[in-house]
Predict the 3D structure of the following.
Amino acid sequence: MTASASIPRVLSSEDGQELMDTVILPSNDYGNRIEAGRDAQGLQAGSGVAVNPQDARMFLTYGEFPLHSLDELIDLALPYVANPHSISMIDVGSGCGRLALYSALTRGSPQQPWNVHGIEISPILHHEAVQALNRAMNGGHAVDYQPQPGNNSCCNLFLHAGAAQEWKQVFATAHVVFAYSTAWETNGFSEEMGAMVIGREWSGLLSESCPNGSVVITTDRALDPAYGWQLVDRLNVDNREVMGSTGYIHVLKRWDEMGRK
């Protein structure tokens, strides 16, 4: 299931952040969204039941990455993207749609339109994202999506419900992928990379699904180079949820059957 819209005019990052924090996903409703995230995990606040950090539900942890930090990491990543006519961006585990909506409102132009995709496995959080999109449409900040030709929007937004594996056709056209991966499982610390390394589940899935040359941004964990990921940059950014985060920028340099990149 996918909800979609087009963004007729781009906002500045300041105006976009204000709109997100006051109207679309108000900051004073943060607690309710965290509670929805716990519902999506199947965890109940105040139950008194201890949860093992390796419990599979913990990898669905809901969090809200700072919008200004997202901007810093996307700006750092963009020079590594080949210059296409348009840019396709994916937010993996998009939750209530906050980062995807913000990016759609503040990125792109009629000359270089963006397509922003959010992919969320939880029906509870996807429902919240659709409600947020409806608020944007009610305020005139988004309109009904119109496919090409005839679409002169700055950006198109698509909110997909389901597991990432179900949307490989979306990954196949990706230029930039963002993953708030701070809670993802790792294979431990790599002294050579100076980072915790994400395990096969995601390092392999993204390598298999994304096109060669695509750029993936992760937080507090790096993708495994054994799957073709070249770590090209990193940046420490603000993140109040975990006392700061490190963003890692990777480019997929996959070898083909002839041994060529």
Residues 15 and 201 are 37 Å apart (CA to CA). The chain is about 30% helix and 25% strand.
